[in-house]
Amino acid sequence: xxxxxxxxxxxxxxxxxxxxxxxxxxxxxxxxxxxxxxxxxxxxxxxxxxxxxxxxxxxxxxxxxxxxxxxxxxxxxxxxxxxxxxxxxxxxxxxxxxxxxxxxxxxxxxxxxxxxxxxxxxxxxxxxxxxxxxxxxxxxxxxxxxxxxxxxxxxxxxxxxxxxxxxxxxxxxxxxxxxxxxxxxxxxxxxxxxxxxxxxxxxxxxxxxxxxxxxxxxxxxxxxxxxxxxxxxxxxxxxxxxxxxxxxxxxxxxxxxxxxxxxxxxxxxxxxxxxxxxxxxxxxxxxxxxxxxxxxxxxxxxxxxxxxxxxxxxxxxxxxxxxxxxxxxxxxxxxxxxxxxxxxxxxxxxxxxxxxxxxxxxxxxxxxxxxxxxxxxxxxxxxxxxxxxxxxxxxxxxxxxxxxxxxxxxxxxxxxxxxxxxxxxxxxxxxxxxxxxxxxxxxxxxxxxxxxxxxxxxxxxxxxxxxxxxxxxxxxxxxxxxxxxxxxxxxxxxxxxxxxxxxxxxxxxxxxxxxxxxxxxxxxxxxxxxxxxxxxxxxxxxxxxxxxxxxxxxxxxxxxxxxxxxxxxxxxxxxxxxxxxxxxxxxxxxxxxxxxxxxxxxxxxxxxxxxxxxxxxxxxxxxxxxxxxxxxxxxxxxxxxxxxxxxxxxxxxxxxxxxxxxxxxxxxxxxxxxxxxxxxxxxxxxxxxxxxxxxxxxxxxxxxxxxxxxxxxxxxxxxxxxxxxxxxxxxxxxxxxx
Length: 738
Ligand code: MOS
What we know:
By secondary structure, the chain is of the alpha+beta class.
């Protein structure tokens, strides 16, 4: 029996610098398109210029005449690619729309791919591919002619009679909000490199799920999954966009097979807006009924989300908004609106970014109606159970409010909108809650401890820039009682034991739980060899103890393969994972509500004359169980809050309603904050312990920090100006017209 290893103080792991930091800053870290330097051919995509209709004719003569062109692929010579069934939320294909014609289902759909000896020749020829279309009027978005509504069959949170409670409430709020289309725009573009050796395919592609990539690509090609090897050791940003199989991957694999040469595709920035998934626009109708003390008796949240014609993708964040407070009664609903668009997909904090923005804006509006401090309104409705009576595993929301509020100086806020001013600048202070479901998935790992005291850890988890190499190595070092520098770690390769997709902020929880299990098994074997019961990692950590055990066992290394299946998972969860079908549990789906929580406070300054909006100060406090590394965690939260400022003030993909075409498909017109937009940013990590979430006690933080920011900014803008903008992003023109 093992006693737990010594725990970090306050459940906060050491701020170790990234173990892969040197590789990254010296350019030695290899990303997907860095692989295969021996005679690759280069690919360039051609995408549709209509959103709905049919390809009549493709003329390739001019394109084929470009010197260096090897071959051109269209719907006419790619029929052997199999159509895969789309499953919402699975690790499978990103959309039902997988073919390259003749049907066109959205603007920017891939219609051809040129392969040439050089990138330049492929690009030149791509411009000479002539496609004639039979175009029809597309439906772009909500309210477009021809857009159709679908009521999903699934049950959304419901408890008590929320409508009756609303009607009977002393104080009522009835408001609507909307959020825009957003695109991930990872700095590393969408790339695929495929190389065949006989019947064996290696695919190099930035991936959040190498087992999904391997298995789904094999299905796409109609070959045995054992013949496909997916490699993705480093990913230059993903945010959900690299978690499913997108149509380009099968196309590149097929092209490489047909021309008998490796093919390398790096899609352009603007193509990345249409060949991948995105965050669709949403609408919200919220009603809240409360008594004079602020207790919320009724919460009604209805959402509308845009999706493609064939696929009912939705994020359905009512699953989370309904749980945040101890509402008396709850009714929620989600409607999917089908338009001529690509299927949307996961984008950082998919359900909660739009839905909690709406909830937390409404909380602020209710506080105004009640003439109550918005923090106090949250305190009055803080509860260890939700409206259905389901209890929280742990909940530190008000601790976060207290810590962040104190750091921010919230008690000095004067309540009246427009009452805080510095010359021409109106000052506004706002706050909002951050909430993210704690996910954990089935996973496997192999750990090898050598007599030298060095260790090797293998798991097909993913490094997206988050610090996965570092925190997983930290867990191994801690459990084996060896220095971090003695741990060698391998990730991002489908030949390693499988990990869940790097989505839903589960990687640290899942990977650390299974690595912990493998390490503990090694320690148990050492303890057995020494003929004693182990007394915890610290006491078995001395290298001499290890060497003694290795001598008795007469081996040079001890290897353990561990499997971890969280409670509630189906019995074949691990077998499914090997086959590319992940299981993720947690959040609101188990017997307890498992969530990480936080509180974000924001100061905005709005120029009284020009209505220019500035954000000089942000403070966020977050409680997420065990924090493996306070340095990488802090970086995650900073990046997330800055992204939250983008959601609040900058980010939106504009759609031409006539052509259903995205207009600002580049990083000059798709606005994100730059350094000058962010001044002071404070992150507080609030200690929390939760042994119920998973063996590692980790709640996950990757998607927590950008959840509350947009509402906090919007609430601060209201406090500065008295103007409530209910449609993101808040640009200055929305304050001029009011
Ligand atoms: Mo994240 S959007 O769950 O990859």
